[in-house]
Specification:
Two copies of one chain form a homodimer. Chain A is an alpha/beta fold. Chain A contains ten helices and 15 strands. In chain A, strand 14, helix 9 and strand 15 form a beta-alpha-beta unit. The longest helix of chain A is centred in the last third of the chain and has 20 residues. The first copy, chain A, is globular and about 70 Å long.
Protein backbone atom coordinates (compact mmCIF):
# COMPACT_ATOMS: atom_id res chain seq x y z
CA UNK A 1 0.00 0.00 0.00
CA UNK A 2 2.64 2.47 1.05
CA UNK A 3 4.68 1.53 -2.06
CA UNK A 4 1.77 2.52 -4.29
CA UNK A 5 1.67 5.90 -2.55
CA UNK A 6 5.45 6.22 -2.82
CA UNK A 7 5.34 5.61 -6.57
CA UNK A 8 2.57 8.11 -7.25
CA UNK A 9 3.18 10.77 -4.58
CA UNK A 10 3.42 14.22 -6.22
CA UNK A 11 2.35 16.62 -3.43
CA UNK A 12 1.93 16.64 0.33
CA UNK A 13 -0.74 19.16 1.35
CA UNK A 14 -0.66 20.17 5.03
CA UNK A 15 -3.24 21.96 7.16
CA UNK A 16 -1.37 22.70 10.38
CA UNK A 17 -3.45 24.49 12.98
CA UNK A 18 -2.95 25.30 16.65
CA UNK A 19 -4.19 21.95 17.90
CA UNK A 20 -4.26 19.60 14.91
CA UNK A 21 -2.14 18.50 11.98
CA UNK A 22 -3.77 17.06 8.84
CA UNK A 23 -1.88 15.80 5.81
CA UNK A 24 -3.16 14.81 2.36
CA UNK A 25 -0.97 12.67 0.10
CA UNK A 26 -1.77 13.48 -3.53
CA UNK A 27 -0.84 12.16 -6.95
CA UNK A 28 0.00 14.44 -9.90
CA UNK A 29 -3.62 14.94 -11.06
CA UNK A 30 -4.60 15.86 -7.47
CA UNK A 31 -6.25 12.59 -6.40
CA UNK A 32 -6.04 11.81 -2.67
CA UNK A 33 -3.82 8.76 -2.06
CA UNK A 34 -4.08 8.96 1.70
CA UNK A 35 -4.90 11.19 4.67
CA UNK A 36 -2.86 11.31 7.88
CA UNK A 37 -3.74 13.17 11.09
CA UNK A 38 -2.20 13.81 14.46
CA UNK A 39 -2.73 16.07 17.45
CA UNK A 40 0.73 17.61 17.12
CA UNK A 41 -0.66 21.07 16.46
CA UNK A 42 1.48 24.22 16.40
CA UNK A 43 0.60 24.90 20.04
CA UNK A 44 2.28 21.70 21.22
CA UNK A 45 5.56 22.03 19.26
CA UNK A 46 8.88 23.84 19.65
CA UNK A 47 10.44 25.15 16.44
CA UNK A 48 12.73 22.12 16.04
CA UNK A 49 9.86 19.67 16.49
CA UNK A 50 7.84 20.53 13.37
CA UNK A 51 9.84 18.49 10.86
CA UNK A 52 9.89 15.36 13.08
CA UNK A 53 6.12 15.74 13.68
CA UNK A 54 5.52 15.84 9.92
CA UNK A 55 7.86 12.90 9.25
CA UNK A 56 6.04 10.86 11.93
CA UNK A 57 3.07 10.92 9.56
CA UNK A 58 4.69 10.58 6.10
CA UNK A 59 8.21 9.14 6.46
CA UNK A 60 7.26 5.77 4.96
CA UNK A 61 5.45 7.38 2.04
CA UNK A 62 8.29 9.54 0.75
CA UNK A 63 10.15 8.35 -2.37
CA UNK A 64 13.98 8.44 -2.34
CA UNK A 65 14.48 9.15 -6.04
CA UNK A 66 12.99 12.64 -6.17
CA UNK A 67 12.11 15.67 -4.05
CA UNK A 68 8.50 15.75 -2.82
CA UNK A 69 6.90 19.18 -2.50
CA UNK A 70 5.02 20.01 0.70
CA UNK A 71 2.58 22.94 0.79
CA UNK A 72 1.42 24.07 4.25
CA UNK A 73 -1.08 26.55 5.62
CA UNK A 74 -2.26 27.58 9.06
CA UNK A 75 -0.59 28.46 12.35
CA UNK A 76 2.54 26.59 11.23
CA UNK A 77 3.37 29.94 9.57
CA UNK A 78 2.96 32.07 12.71
CA UNK A 79 5.81 33.51 14.77
CA UNK A 80 5.53 30.51 17.10
CA UNK A 81 5.40 28.07 14.17
CA UNK A 82 7.94 26.29 11.96
CA UNK A 83 8.87 29.47 10.14
CA UNK A 84 7.05 32.83 10.11
CA UNK A 85 5.28 33.25 6.79
CA UNK A 86 4.11 36.84 7.32
CA UNK A 87 0.83 38.36 6.20
CA UNK A 88 -0.59 39.84 3.03
CA UNK A 89 -2.66 43.00 3.64
CA UNK A 90 -6.22 43.46 2.38
CA UNK A 91 -7.41 44.30 -0.18
CA UNK A 92 -5.51 41.43 -1.78
CA UNK A 93 -6.01 38.12 -3.54
CA UNK A 94 -6.11 35.11 -1.24
CA UNK A 95 -2.37 34.45 -1.12
CA UNK A 96 -1.30 31.42 -3.14
CA UNK A 97 2.07 29.76 -3.55
CA UNK A 98 3.71 32.77 -5.22
CA UNK A 99 3.76 34.52 -1.83
CA UNK A 100 4.66 31.38 0.13
CA UNK A 101 7.73 31.18 2.38
CA UNK A 102 10.25 28.42 1.77
CA UNK A 103 11.27 26.71 5.02
CA UNK A 104 14.59 24.90 5.43
CA UNK A 105 14.36 21.15 6.01
CA UNK A 106 16.83 18.54 7.30
CA UNK A 107 15.36 15.72 5.23
CA UNK A 108 16.51 16.23 1.63
CA UNK A 109 13.49 14.35 0.28
CA UNK A 110 11.31 17.41 1.09
CA UNK A 111 10.82 20.89 -0.37
CA UNK A 112 8.47 22.82 1.93
CA UNK A 113 6.45 26.01 1.57
CA UNK A 114 4.17 27.84 3.98
CA UNK A 115 1.35 30.08 2.71
CA UNK A 116 1.20 33.55 4.37
CA UNK A 117 -1.77 34.73 6.41
CA UNK A 118 -3.85 37.82 5.68
CA UNK A 119 -4.07 40.91 7.85
CA UNK A 120 -6.14 44.07 7.92
CA UNK A 121 -5.02 47.37 9.44
CA UNK A 122 -7.76 49.52 10.94
CA UNK A 123 -9.78 47.77 12.24
CA UNK A 124 -6.90 45.38 12.90
CA UNK A 125 -7.58 41.75 12.11
CA UNK A 126 -5.71 38.59 11.14
CA UNK A 127 -6.38 35.19 9.57
CA UNK A 128 -4.11 32.23 9.09
CA UNK A 129 -5.50 29.14 7.42
CA UNK A 130 -8.84 30.62 6.39
CA UNK A 131 -7.16 32.48 3.49
CA UNK A 132 -6.36 29.08 1.98
CA UNK A 133 -9.98 28.00 2.31
CA UNK A 134 -10.99 31.19 0.52
CA UNK A 135 -8.38 30.49 -2.18
CA UNK A 136 -9.79 26.99 -2.67
CA UNK A 137 -13.33 28.32 -2.81
CA UNK A 138 -12.34 30.96 -5.40
CA UNK A 139 -10.48 28.34 -7.44
CA UNK A 140 -13.84 26.58 -7.76
CA UNK A 141 -16.03 29.71 -7.90
CA UNK A 142 -13.87 32.30 -9.68
CA UNK A 143 -16.74 34.71 -10.37
CA UNK A 144 -18.09 34.81 -6.82
CA UNK A 145 -19.00 38.27 -5.55
CA UNK A 146 -20.37 38.35 -2.04
CA UNK A 147 -19.40 37.36 1.46
CA UNK A 148 -17.70 34.23 2.74
CA UNK A 149 -18.35 33.19 6.35
CA UNK A 150 -15.99 30.67 7.93
CA UNK A 151 -17.54 29.55 11.24
CA UNK A 152 -15.19 28.10 13.83
CA UNK A 153 -13.26 28.97 16.99
CA UNK A 154 -12.67 32.42 15.52
CA UNK A 155 -15.35 32.89 12.88
CA UNK A 156 -14.35 35.04 9.91
CA UNK A 157 -16.59 37.10 7.65
CA UNK A 158 -14.80 38.16 4.44
CA UNK A 159 -16.06 40.43 1.67
CA UNK A 160 -15.02 39.02 -1.69
CA UNK A 161 -15.09 40.99 -4.92
CA UNK A 162 -13.14 40.74 -8.18
CA UNK A 163 -11.21 37.70 -6.82
CA UNK A 164 -9.93 39.75 -3.87
CA UNK A 165 -10.49 39.71 -0.12
CA UNK A 166 -11.68 43.30 0.28
CA UNK A 167 -12.08 43.34 4.07
CA UNK A 168 -12.81 40.90 6.86
CA UNK A 169 -13.89 40.69 10.48
CA UNK A 170 -13.29 38.01 13.11
CA UNK A 171 -15.73 37.05 15.88
CA UNK A 172 -14.68 35.00 18.91
CA UNK A 173 -18.04 33.21 18.94
CA UNK A 174 -16.68 29.64 18.86
CA UNK A 175 -14.14 30.24 21.60
CA UNK A 176 -16.76 31.98 23.75
CA UNK A 177 -19.08 29.00 23.27
CA UNK A 178 -16.33 26.58 24.28
CA UNK A 179 -15.29 28.60 27.35
CA UNK A 180 -18.86 29.15 28.53
CA UNK A 181 -20.10 25.62 27.90
CA UNK A 182 -17.08 23.86 29.38
CA UNK A 183 -15.48 26.18 31.94
CA UNK A 184 -18.06 28.63 33.27
CA UNK A 185 -20.89 28.29 35.79
CA UNK A 186 -23.10 27.42 32.77
CA UNK A 187 -21.34 24.08 32.24
CA UNK A 188 -23.84 22.31 34.52
CA UNK A 189 -26.79 23.75 32.58
CA UNK A 190 -25.80 23.05 28.94
CA UNK A 191 -24.04 19.69 29.20
CA UNK A 192 -25.82 17.69 26.47
CA UNK A 193 -25.40 16.70 22.83
CA UNK A 194 -29.06 17.49 22.10
CA UNK A 195 -30.06 20.54 20.12
CA UNK A 196 -33.45 22.23 19.85
CA UNK A 197 -33.79 24.30 16.67
CA UNK A 198 -36.81 26.28 17.88
CA UNK A 199 -35.03 27.35 21.06
CA UNK A 200 -31.94 28.24 19.01
CA UNK A 201 -33.90 30.44 16.61
CA UNK A 202 -35.78 32.21 19.41
CA UNK A 203 -32.55 32.94 21.27
CA UNK A 204 -30.87 34.09 18.06
CA UNK A 205 -33.68 36.49 17.30
CA UNK A 206 -33.63 37.71 20.91
CA UNK A 207 -29.89 38.41 20.81
CA UNK A 208 -30.11 40.16 17.45
CA UNK A 209 -32.70 42.59 18.76
CA UNK A 210 -31.09 43.13 22.19
CA UNK A 211 -27.37 42.26 21.92
CA UNK A 212 -26.55 44.38 25.00
CA UNK A 213 -28.42 41.86 27.15
CA UNK A 214 -26.14 38.94 26.34
CA UNK A 215 -24.15 38.87 29.60
CA UNK A 216 -27.43 38.84 31.48
CA UNK A 217 -29.17 36.31 29.19
CA UNK A 218 -26.22 33.97 29.71
CA UNK A 219 -26.59 33.94 33.50
CA UNK A 220 -30.33 33.51 32.95
CA UNK A 221 -29.60 30.04 31.49
CA UNK A 222 -28.08 29.00 34.81
CA UNK A 223 -30.85 30.61 36.84
CA UNK A 224 -33.62 29.01 34.74
CA UNK A 225 -31.98 25.61 35.23
CA UNK A 226 -31.89 26.17 39.00
CA UNK A 227 -35.32 27.66 39.63
CA UNK A 228 -37.45 26.46 36.67
CA UNK A 229 -35.81 23.10 35.84
CA UNK A 230 -34.98 24.32 32.33
CA UNK A 231 -33.61 21.39 30.30
CA UNK A 232 -29.96 21.01 29.30
CA UNK A 233 -31.05 20.90 25.65
CA UNK A 234 -32.81 24.24 26.07
CA UNK A 235 -29.76 25.71 27.77
CA UNK A 236 -27.31 24.54 25.14
CA UNK A 237 -29.45 25.59 22.17
CA UNK A 238 -30.13 29.01 23.68
CA UNK A 239 -26.42 29.53 24.46
CA UNK A 240 -25.63 28.81 20.82
CA UNK A 241 -28.46 31.11 19.67
CA UNK A 242 -27.39 34.01 21.90
CA UNK A 243 -23.77 33.91 20.77
CA UNK A 244 -24.46 33.40 17.05
CA UNK A 245 -27.25 35.98 17.23
CA UNK A 246 -24.85 38.55 18.67
CA UNK A 247 -22.42 37.70 15.88
CA UNK A 248 -25.04 38.02 13.14
CA UNK A 249 -26.07 41.40 14.55
CA UNK A 250 -22.45 42.58 14.52
CA UNK A 251 -21.77 41.11 11.06
CA UNK A 252 -24.94 42.49 9.49
CA UNK A 253 -23.01 44.98 7.30
CA UNK A 254 -21.28 41.92 5.82
CA UNK A 255 -24.20 39.66 5.01
CA UNK A 256 -27.12 41.99 4.42
CA UNK A 257 -28.19 41.73 0.79
CA UNK A 258 -25.14 39.66 -0.18
CA UNK A 259 -24.54 36.27 -1.72
CA UNK A 260 -23.31 34.16 1.19
CA UNK A 261 -20.99 31.14 1.15
CA UNK A 262 -20.46 29.23 4.41
CA UNK A 263 -17.21 27.29 4.68
CA UNK A 264 -16.70 25.14 7.77
CA UNK A 265 -17.50 21.89 9.54
CA UNK A 266 -20.81 20.70 8.04
CA UNK A 267 -22.74 20.54 11.34
CA UNK A 268 -21.65 24.05 12.31
CA UNK A 269 -22.40 25.42 8.83
CA UNK A 270 -25.91 24.00 9.13
CA UNK A 271 -26.47 25.96 12.36
CA UNK A 272 -25.30 29.20 10.74
CA UNK A 273 -27.36 28.45 7.64
CA UNK A 274 -30.41 27.98 9.85
CA UNK A 275 -29.72 31.26 11.67
CA UNK A 276 -29.27 33.17 8.41
CA UNK A 277 -32.42 31.60 6.95
CA UNK A 278 -34.33 32.99 9.94
CA UNK A 279 -33.15 36.43 8.70
CA UNK A 280 -34.41 35.65 5.21
CA UNK A 281 -30.93 34.91 3.82
CA UNK A 282 -29.95 31.82 1.88
CA UNK A 283 -26.39 30.53 2.11
CA UNK A 284 -24.57 27.78 0.23
CA UNK A 285 -22.32 25.58 2.36
CA UNK A 286 -18.89 24.11 1.59
CA UNK A 287 -16.66 21.78 3.57
CA UNK A 288 -13.67 23.52 5.19
CA UNK A 289 -11.56 20.45 4.63
CA UNK A 290 -12.38 20.30 0.88
CA UNK A 291 -11.69 24.03 0.44
CA UNK A 292 -8.37 23.83 2.31
CA UNK A 293 -7.24 20.99 0.08
CA UNK A 294 -8.31 22.86 -3.06
CA UNK A 295 -6.47 25.97 -1.83
CA UNK A 296 -3.27 24.06 -1.12
CA UNK A 297 -3.39 22.42 -4.57
CA UNK A 298 -3.89 25.84 -6.18
CA UNK A 299 -0.98 27.24 -4.14
CA UNK A 300 1.25 24.41 -5.32
CA UNK A 301 0.43 25.10 -8.95
CA UNK A 302 2.02 28.56 -8.42
CA UNK A 303 5.37 27.11 -7.36
CA UNK A 304 5.50 23.90 -9.43
CA UNK A 305 7.99 25.30 -11.93
CA UNK A 306 10.43 26.43 -9.22
CA UNK A 307 10.82 22.78 -8.23
CA UNK A 308 12.43 21.50 -11.44
CA UNK B 1 -5.55 36.20 73.17
CA UNK B 2 -7.88 33.36 72.34
CA UNK B 3 -9.14 33.39 75.93
CA UNK B 4 -10.19 37.03 75.58
CA UNK B 5 -12.16 36.07 72.46
CA UNK B 6 -13.60 33.05 74.24
CA UNK B 7 -14.85 35.21 77.10
CA UNK B 8 -16.47 37.84 74.92
CA UNK B 9 -17.60 35.82 71.88
CA UNK B 10 -21.31 36.44 71.21
CA UNK B 11 -21.70 35.73 67.47
CA UNK B 12 -19.82 34.02 64.67
CA UNK B 13 -20.68 35.65 61.31
CA UNK B 14 -19.81 33.53 58.26
CA UNK B 15 -19.57 34.49 54.59
CA UNK B 16 -19.19 31.13 52.86
CA UNK B 17 -18.86 31.40 49.09
CA UNK B 18 -17.95 28.95 46.34
CA UNK B 19 -14.21 29.39 46.74
CA UNK B 20 -13.65 31.16 50.06
CA UNK B 21 -14.72 31.01 53.70
CA UNK B 22 -14.53 34.12 55.89
CA UNK B 23 -15.46 34.23 59.56
CA UNK B 24 -15.88 37.22 61.88
CA UNK B 25 -15.80 36.69 65.64
CA UNK B 26 -17.97 39.32 67.34
CA UNK B 27 -18.74 40.44 70.87
CA UNK B 28 -22.26 41.28 72.06
CA UNK B 29 -22.21 44.95 70.89
CA UNK B 30 -21.01 43.78 67.44
CA UNK B 31 -17.30 44.65 67.70
CA UNK B 32 -14.97 42.46 65.68
CA UNK B 33 -12.76 40.35 67.97
CA UNK B 34 -11.05 38.50 65.14
CA UNK B 35 -11.28 37.51 61.47
CA UNK B 36 -10.44 34.04 60.15
CA UNK B 37 -10.23 32.97 56.49
CA UNK B 38 -9.61 29.81 54.52
CA UNK B 39 -9.93 28.57 50.97
CA UNK B 40 -12.35 25.82 51.97
CA UNK B 41 -15.14 27.25 49.85
CA UNK B 42 -18.40 25.40 49.18
CA UNK B 43 -17.02 24.13 45.89
CA UNK B 44 -14.26 22.16 47.61
CA UNK B 45 -16.38 20.47 50.32
CA UNK B 46 -18.66 17.46 50.62
CA UNK B 47 -21.70 17.87 52.85
CA UNK B 48 -20.01 16.25 55.86
CA UNK B 49 -16.94 18.47 55.56
CA UNK B 50 -18.57 21.83 56.30
CA UNK B 51 -18.61 21.58 60.09
CA UNK B 52 -14.95 20.42 60.30
CA UNK B 53 -13.93 23.24 57.91
CA UNK B 54 -15.62 25.79 60.18
CA UNK B 55 -14.16 24.27 63.36
CA UNK B 56 -10.68 24.39 61.78
CA UNK B 57 -11.00 28.17 61.99
CA UNK B 58 -12.81 28.71 65.32
CA UNK B 59 -12.46 25.61 67.52
CA UNK B 60 -10.07 27.31 69.96
CA UNK B 61 -12.27 30.38 70.24
CA UNK B 62 -15.49 28.64 71.28
CA UNK B 63 -16.49 28.82 74.94
CA UNK B 64 -17.67 25.58 76.65
CA UNK B 65 -20.12 27.16 79.09
CA UNK B 66 -22.67 28.41 76.56
CA UNK B 67 -23.95 27.91 73.00
CA UNK B 68 -22.42 30.27 70.43
CA UNK B 69 -24.68 31.36 67.56
CA UNK B 70 -23.33 31.15 64.01
CA UNK B 71 -25.04 33.08 61.19
CA UNK B 72 -24.00 32.11 57.63
CA UNK B 73 -24.72 33.39 54.14
CA UNK B 74 -23.60 32.46 50.63
CA UNK B 75 -23.27 29.24 48.67
CA UNK B 76 -23.13 27.28 51.94
CA UNK B 77 -26.94 27.41 51.63
CA UNK B 78 -27.10 25.98 48.11
CA UNK B 79 -28.15 22.44 47.24
CA UNK B 80 -24.47 21.46 47.15
CA UNK B 81 -23.78 23.25 50.45
CA UNK B 82 -24.05 22.36 54.15
CA UNK B 83 -27.84 22.52 54.09
CA UNK B 84 -30.13 23.95 51.43
CA UNK B 85 -31.55 27.25 52.64
CA UNK B 86 -33.96 27.82 49.75
CA UNK B 87 -34.85 31.15 48.16
CA UNK B 88 -37.17 34.05 48.88
CA UNK B 89 -38.95 35.34 45.78
CA UNK B 90 -38.94 39.00 44.73
CA UNK B 91 -40.52 41.37 45.47
CA UNK B 92 -39.40 40.74 49.05
CA UNK B 93 -37.31 42.19 51.85
CA UNK B 94 -33.69 41.10 51.84
CA UNK B 95 -34.14 37.93 53.87
CA UNK B 96 -32.87 38.23 57.43
CA UNK B 97 -32.63 35.69 60.21
CA UNK B 98 -36.38 35.14 60.48
CA UNK B 99 -36.25 33.19 57.21
CA UNK B 100 -32.96 31.44 57.98
CA UNK B 101 -32.61 27.66 57.98
CA UNK B 102 -31.30 25.95 61.11
CA UNK B 103 -28.64 23.37 60.28
CA UNK B 104 -27.87 20.39 62.55
CA UNK B 105 -24.40 20.37 64.11
CA UNK B 106 -22.33 17.68 65.79
CA UNK B 107 -20.54 20.10 68.10
CA UNK B 108 -22.97 21.09 70.85
CA UNK B 109 -21.18 24.43 71.38
CA UNK B 110 -22.75 25.73 68.13
CA UNK B 111 -26.21 26.85 66.97
CA UNK B 112 -26.06 27.52 63.24
CA UNK B 113 -28.33 29.31 60.78
CA UNK B 114 -28.05 29.87 57.04
CA UNK B 115 -29.74 32.85 55.37
CA UNK B 116 -31.79 31.98 52.24
CA UNK B 117 -30.98 33.31 48.78
CA UNK B 118 -33.32 35.37 46.63
CA UNK B 119 -34.83 34.29 43.33
CA UNK B 120 -36.86 35.90 40.58
CA UNK B 121 -39.22 34.04 38.26
CA UNK B 122 -39.57 35.44 34.75
CA UNK B 123 -36.90 36.49 33.89
CA UNK B 124 -35.39 33.78 36.08
CA UNK B 125 -32.53 34.88 38.26
CA UNK B 126 -30.88 33.93 41.55
CA UNK B 127 -28.59 35.43 44.16
CA UNK B 128 -26.97 33.87 47.20
CA UNK B 129 -24.78 36.04 49.41
CA UNK B 130 -25.58 39.36 47.74
CA UNK B 131 -28.96 39.48 49.52
CA UNK B 132 -27.07 39.74 52.81
CA UNK B 133 -24.98 42.62 51.46
CA UNK B 134 -28.22 44.33 50.47
CA UNK B 135 -29.65 43.66 53.95
CA UNK B 136 -26.54 45.20 55.53
CA UNK B 137 -26.75 48.20 53.24
CA UNK B 138 -30.43 48.71 54.06
CA UNK B 139 -29.74 48.36 57.79
CA UNK B 140 -27.46 51.38 57.40
CA UNK B 141 -29.53 53.21 54.75
CA UNK B 142 -33.14 52.28 55.59
CA UNK B 143 -34.69 55.01 53.42
CA UNK B 144 -32.72 54.21 50.24
CA UNK B 145 -34.78 54.18 47.06
CA UNK B 146 -32.78 53.39 43.92
CA UNK B 147 -30.58 50.69 42.51
CA UNK B 148 -27.83 48.66 44.14
CA UNK B 149 -25.09 47.27 41.89
CA UNK B 150 -22.89 44.50 43.27
CA UNK B 151 -19.97 44.02 40.86
CA UNK B 152 -18.19 40.68 40.95
CA UNK B 153 -17.96 37.34 39.18
CA UNK B 154 -21.71 37.53 38.60
CA UNK B 155 -22.60 41.20 38.91
CA UNK B 156 -26.08 41.93 40.28
CA UNK B 157 -28.24 44.99 39.68
CA UNK B 158 -31.12 45.21 42.17
CA UNK B 159 -33.98 47.71 42.25
CA UNK B 160 -34.68 48.71 45.85
CA UNK B 161 -37.84 50.48 46.97
CA UNK B 162 -39.69 50.64 50.28
CA UNK B 163 -37.04 48.37 51.88
CA UNK B 164 -37.75 45.62 49.35
CA UNK B 165 -35.78 44.05 46.49
CA UNK B 166 -38.27 44.74 43.71
CA UNK B 167 -36.39 43.00 40.86
CA UNK B 168 -32.84 42.14 39.93
CA UNK B 169 -30.66 41.07 37.02
CA UNK B 170 -27.34 39.22 36.94
CA UNK B 171 -24.56 39.79 34.38
CA UNK B 172 -21.71 37.31 33.88
CA UNK B 173 -19.28 40.17 33.27
CA UNK B 174 -16.69 39.17 35.89
CA UNK B 175 -16.62 35.53 34.86
CA UNK B 176 -16.34 36.50 31.18
CA UNK B 177 -13.41 38.80 32.05
CA UNK B 178 -11.67 36.00 33.97
CA UNK B 179 -12.22 33.41 31.21
CA UNK B 180 -11.14 35.75 28.42
CA UNK B 181 -8.12 37.21 30.19
CA UNK B 182 -6.80 33.92 31.54
CA UNK B 183 -7.99 31.13 29.25
CA UNK B 184 -8.71 32.51 25.77
CA UNK B 185 -6.46 33.52 22.88
CA UNK B 186 -6.53 37.02 24.41
CA UNK B 187 -4.47 35.94 27.43
CA UNK B 188 -1.23 36.85 25.63
CA UNK B 189 -2.53 40.34 24.82
CA UNK B 190 -3.93 41.49 28.20
CA UNK B 191 -1.48 39.97 30.68
CA UNK B 192 -0.57 43.00 32.82
CA UNK B 193 -1.55 44.66 36.09
CA UNK B 194 -1.56 48.11 34.46
CA UNK B 195 -4.77 49.94 33.68
CA UNK B 196 -5.37 52.88 31.37
CA UNK B 197 -8.48 54.87 32.30
CA UNK B 198 -8.76 56.66 28.96
CA UNK B 199 -8.66 53.41 27.00
CA UNK B 200 -11.21 51.92 29.41
CA UNK B 201 -13.64 54.82 28.96
CA UNK B 202 -13.28 54.81 25.16
CA UNK B 203 -13.93 51.07 24.99
CA UNK B 204 -16.86 51.38 27.38
CA UNK B 205 -18.45 54.08 25.26
CA UNK B 206 -17.81 52.03 22.11
CA UNK B 207 -19.46 48.93 23.58
CA UNK B 208 -22.45 50.91 24.84
CA UNK B 209 -23.15 52.30 21.38
CA UNK B 210 -22.44 49.05 19.47
CA UNK B 211 -22.85 46.11 21.88
CA UNK B 212 -23.42 43.72 18.95
CA UNK B 213 -19.78 44.16 17.96
CA UNK B 214 -18.35 42.78 21.20
CA UNK B 215 -17.31 39.34 19.90
CA UNK B 216 -15.49 41.07 17.06
CA UNK B 217 -13.97 43.85 19.22
CA UNK B 218 -12.59 41.15 21.51
CA UNK B 219 -10.67 39.40 18.73
CA UNK B 220 -9.53 42.84 17.58
CA UNK B 221 -7.53 43.11 20.83
CA UNK B 222 -5.52 40.06 19.82
CA UNK B 223 -5.12 41.24 16.21
CA UNK B 224 -4.01 44.75 17.23
CA UNK B 225 -1.40 43.20 19.52
CA UNK B 226 -0.12 41.05 16.64
CA UNK B 227 -0.11 43.54 13.78
CA UNK B 228 0.09 46.97 15.48
CA UNK B 229 2.06 46.14 18.67
CA UNK B 230 -0.84 47.31 20.82
CA UNK B 231 0.29 47.36 24.49
CA UNK B 232 -0.89 44.86 27.11
CA UNK B 233 -2.19 47.75 29.19
CA UNK B 234 -4.32 48.92 26.25
CA UNK B 235 -5.58 45.37 25.71
CA UNK B 236 -6.53 44.79 29.31
CA UNK B 237 -8.20 48.19 29.81
CA UNK B 238 -10.19 47.82 26.57
CA UNK B 239 -11.27 44.28 27.50
CA UNK B 240 -12.60 45.63 30.79
CA UNK B 241 -14.28 48.55 29.01
CA UNK B 242 -15.97 46.37 26.38
CA UNK B 243 -17.41 43.96 28.93
CA UNK B 244 -18.53 46.57 31.46
CA UNK B 245 -19.84 48.74 28.61
CA UNK B 246 -21.99 45.89 27.33
CA UNK B 247 -23.26 45.38 30.89
CA UNK B 248 -24.07 49.06 31.40
CA UNK B 249 -25.95 49.06 28.08
CA UNK B 250 -27.96 46.01 29.17
CA UNK B 251 -28.56 47.36 32.68
CA UNK B 252 -29.56 50.84 31.52
CA UNK B 253 -33.20 50.35 32.61
CA UNK B 254 -31.83 49.78 36.12
CA UNK B 255 -29.50 52.72 36.55
CA UNK B 256 -30.92 55.44 34.32
CA UNK B 257 -32.10 58.34 36.49
CA UNK B 258 -31.68 56.34 39.70
CA UNK B 259 -29.73 56.77 42.92
CA UNK B 260 -26.95 54.21 42.62
CA UNK B 261 -25.07 52.38 45.37
CA UNK B 262 -22.10 50.19 44.40
CA UNK B 263 -21.25 47.37 46.81
CA UNK B 264 -18.14 45.32 46.08
CA UNK B 265 -14.36 45.13 46.24
CA UNK B 266 -13.15 48.75 46.38
CA UNK B 267 -10.93 48.57 43.26
CA UNK B 268 -13.72 47.03 41.17
CA UNK B 269 -16.29 49.51 42.51
CA UNK B 270 -13.98 52.33 41.43
CA UNK B 271 -13.96 50.98 37.85
CA UNK B 272 -17.77 50.80 37.76
CA UNK B 273 -18.01 54.24 39.36
CA UNK B 274 -15.72 55.61 36.65
CA UNK B 275 -17.80 53.96 33.91
CA UNK B 276 -21.06 55.30 35.34
CA UNK B 277 -19.55 58.78 35.75
CA UNK B 278 -18.77 58.71 32.02
CA UNK B 279 -22.55 58.31 31.54
CA UNK B 280 -23.21 61.27 33.80
CA UNK B 281 -24.22 59.14 36.81
CA UNK B 282 -22.80 59.46 40.29
CA UNK B 283 -22.61 56.39 42.50
CA UNK B 284 -21.68 55.94 46.16
CA UNK B 285 -19.49 52.95 46.94
CA UNK B 286 -19.58 50.55 49.88
CA UNK B 287 -17.32 47.67 50.85
CA UNK B 288 -18.85 44.24 50.18
CA UNK B 289 -17.15 42.86 53.25
CA UNK B 290 -18.56 45.59 55.52
CA UNK B 291 -22.06 45.16 54.10
CA UNK B 292 -21.96 41.37 54.49
CA UNK B 293 -20.96 41.71 58.13
CA UNK B 294 -23.70 44.28 58.76
CA UNK B 295 -26.23 41.98 57.08
CA UNK B 296 -25.22 38.98 59.15
CA UNK B 297 -25.44 41.00 62.38
CA UNK B 298 -28.91 42.20 61.36
CA UNK B 299 -29.95 38.62 60.57
CA UNK B 300 -28.77 37.47 63.99
CA UNK B 301 -30.84 40.12 65.72
CA UNK B 302 -33.91 38.42 64.20
CA UNK B 303 -33.15 35.06 65.84
CA UNK B 304 -31.50 36.16 69.08
CA UNK B 305 -34.53 35.41 71.21
CA UNK B 306 -34.89 31.85 69.89
CA UNK B 307 -31.50 31.05 71.41
CA UNK B 308 -32.43 31.50 75.07
Amino acid sequence: MSDIIKDKLALVAVDWGTSNLRVWLLDAPGNVLGIRESEKGMGTLAQSEFEPALLDLIDGDLPFDRVTPVMCCGMVGSRQGWKEAGYMTVPCEAPGGAKATRAEVQDQRLALWIVPGVKQIGPDDVMRGEETQVAGFLAQNPDFDGVVCLPGTHTKWARISAKEIVSFQTFMTGELFALLSKQSVLRHSVNTAEFDGDVFRDALSDAMSRPQSIASKLFGLRAAHLVSDQSLSHGKSALSGYLIGMELAGARPYWLGMDIALIGAPALCDIYKDGLAAQGCFANTYSASDMTLAGLIAAFSDVRETLS
